[in-house]
Design brief:
globular, 3-stranded parallel β-sheet, single chain, 3 strands, alpha/beta
């Protein structure tokens, strides 16, 4: 870096944001799946990798075929399916599409940290409803929704607690959101 060079400041929404780190649940866990990591690859998998042409792993895959297959399997329109490179990308896209200044997200906390991060980065308000354990706080989430609510995030099983929202919880939240909008 050249001395006296001015380093630009991040955008306002990112000022003061701390670096992401995985929060670990205090319960003992023998199998960590949260980081999508594996330390040792089986030999047969390595052999398969060697047989793949370089362009295949160097380029992003075409996802329209996958999205069409998923839509067909579930009997929905293809434009209702979004295949992403992991959950983080899906959360980011949803927040950028449906949130921003003047909009808010309702989420039960604690939950997956990236949801609040992506919502904050687009300038959305955060309405947190406590869900430390046990049954999903459906009534509280529904009561927190307003005309400014752009997204309601429900993680089930919840990360990091493992608590589960039922199908009935999802349906009641969806019905409430539809009646407000």
């Amino acid at each position: 870096m050249i001395q006296n060079e001015r380093v630009p400041e991040p955008i306002e929404a990112l000022r003061g944001v701390r670096a992401y780190s995985v929060n670990r649940h205090p319960a003992p866990v023998e199998l960590d799946l949260d980081a999508n990591e594996r330390t040792v690859l089986p030999d047969e998998l390595l052999g398969t990798f060697r047989a793949i042409e370089a362009d295949t792993v160097r380029k992003y895959p075409e996802i329209r075929e996958l999205e069409s297959a998923i839509a067909k399997k579930f009997g929905i329109a293809t434009d209702r399916v979004l295949a992403t490179a992991g959950g983080d990308e899906a959360i980011d896209r949803i927040c950028r599409a449906y949130l921003g200044p003047g909009r808010e997200i309702v989420l039960a906390v604690p939950t997956f940290e990236m949801i609040e991060r992506y919502a904050s980065m687009v300038g959305a308000g955060i309405k947190a409803v406590d869900w430390p354990s046990g049954a999903f706080p459906t009534s509280e989430v529904c009561a927190a929704m307003t005309e400014d609510t752009g997204v309601v995030a429900i993680v089930s099983p919840n990360n990091p607690t493992g608590s589960v929202a039922t199908v009935e919880d999802f349906l009641r939240v969806a019905e409430t959101a539809a009646s407000i909008g």
